[in-house]
Design brief:
This protein has about 210 residues and is α+β, with helices and mostly antiparallel strands. About 25% of the residues lie in helices and about 35% in strands. Strands 6, 7, 8, 9 and 10 form a five-stranded antiparallel beta sheet that branches. A three-stranded antiparallel beta sheet has the order 2-4-3. It has a two-stranded antiparallel ribbon with strand order 1-5. It comes from Dyella soli.
């Protein structure tokens, strides 16, 4: 039979355990930030480098045949994704008031469908290529109340992890360097973390 003293001690231990996840600490902030990163993949967006835009696949682009390279610069990022195995390409012709002009239609490969962000649940032309992971919590502000919530601004460093080989190809980086900047070492970043009944969460994740 448990004595009142033992029950009180067990209750205090349980309370401390429950409260521990609410403590502002590097460990708890790392857990919260990494949980956030697991929900948000690193993206390869082929529209970043070119002037074309596509909301989904298949995507057809009419080339400017008057360019010295036949308009190849317009679809350089898509061609890089063809070489990476994410897209397949088919050549065609567009009829217009200017006559015939060459076009290219890009469709998802089997590997591309797997890597496509959302995997077809919504229209997008972006591919997922791993995610970030916290390497160090540099500092955090003393938790304070803001708009009725207890928050802390956390400064940290991170690195890209679980990046597939296709996303590390040199020609992909050459074709759209801005789209894969995350491949470079990630400097200091900042996020606002919010204290909830579930512990610390990155601001915004409490509504997901």
């Amino acid at each position: 039979m448990k004595t009142p003293y033992l029950l009180a001690a067990l209750g205090a231990t349980a309370l401390l355990a429950a409260c521990s996840s609410r403590d502002p600490s590097k460990r708890h902030f790392t857990q919260a930030i990494d949980a956030h990163f697991q929900k948000h993949c690193l993206e390869v967006n082929p529209t970043t480098h070119d002037f074309n835009d596509a909301d989904s696949y298949p995507a057809t682009f009419t080339l400017n045949g008057d360019d010295t390279d036949g308009g190849a610069w317009m679809v350089a990022s898509y061609e890089a994704l063809v070489k990476a195995g994410m897209l397949a390409v088919q050549d065609g012709v567009t009829q217009g008031i200017w006559g015939e002009r060459p076009n290219k239609t890009y469709s998802l490969t089997a590997a591309g469908r797997v890597a496509l962000k959302g995997q077809g649940k919504y229209d997008t032309n972006r591919f997922c290529a791993g995610h970030l992971e916290t390497t160090e919590i540099v500092m955090f502000t003393t938790p304070a109340v803001s708009n009725g919530m207890t928050v802390s601004q956390v400064t940290f460093t991170a690195k890209a992890v679980d990046v597939p080989a296709w996303a590390m190809r040199k020609d992909l980086g050459d074709a759209m360097p801005e789209a894969v900047r995350w491949r470079d070492p990630v400097g200091k970043r900042q996020l606002i973390l919010v204290l909830t009944n579930e512990g610390w969460l990155v601001d915004g994740d409490q509504t997901l």
